[in-house]
């Protein structure tokens, strides 16, 4: 097999890249190790920045998102039994975010790729990227019980932290920056309408809590728990009781309960791999960077990466200049480090570290009071949450 761009991974990054390249007249092949059902049902992020929404619409993948997605014009911060709403459009010149699950983004992009785009091979396990530093890189993969080779002009690794793409970059050429947090998120899906129409981020002495949603009838909620927690060690009623405590306010707001249909534990870490390019191999998404979920940045960073690559390759096609491709890593990393900073700030602002001192508790409350009382501080949060520019 031969193509211009070999894409490893059919998550939102790989699928969107294939879509962008198709609309630019550049052919690609997508290799995905899992089957279609797995890709369309794995639960991941659900908050789309304004820029991500705009890109999906421009790519012709926004029809169902616009119909079923939930536009959110703000978030609520809770602390010390107080409530403060951050109004995104008022602070950012009209920007907002949209609640639309990654599973739904993938379904939309898969349907478009199979109808209009190039080959999308499921259960095609990428085994290695070879010749990354040559003009003819290739991907060795296994599909339908036999090994094959996809010959490319470029390879883009959208295959996550455990994928093969990053392993093709010599370790002596790389730098890794990472932080592991001493807590995790216990997340639940529940068949109950959300108890608030926008996301609620709660800082409490017992730990962080987040009220989110997947639809008008399905709630998604999270509790800060110790690292290594087993989700099954929490009984359903125990989870609801703890959520009630952490969301407590001085008014008459109440948390509605319902049947819990799913429980999972998400570890918390920050990770950046530099550079994001080696020869004709380019990394995108979790293959190059991971953020704690507090800032809702993971999927959106991956979108920024593939938009940057697609623009750079289109520029080379139109002008013959590799200038933008040569700057791919530098361009992406500027945005990534700002998102890492914001995600770290939100995490340290709202989570109570094991052994936190009374001084540290007061510092968190002082930072929250600053956001609630300063338009400048509130604007900084709103601009970051709704998304850093892709360029």
TrEMBL record:
Gene3D superfamilies documented for this protein: D-Amino Acid Oxidase, subunit A, domain 2, FAD/NAD(P)-binding domain
UniProt cross-references to Pfam families, sorted A to Z: FAD_binding_3 (PF01494)
UniProtKB keywords: FAD, Flavoprotein, Oxidoreductase
E.C. number: 1.14.13.33
A single MF term (Gene Ontology): 4-hydroxybenzoate 3-monooxygenase [NAD(P)H] activity
Ranges of residues in domain FAD-binding: 2-343
InterPro entries documented for this protein: FAD-bd, FAD/NAD-bd_sf, RIFMO-like
Protein name: 4-hydroxybenzoate 3-monooxygenase (NAD(P)H)
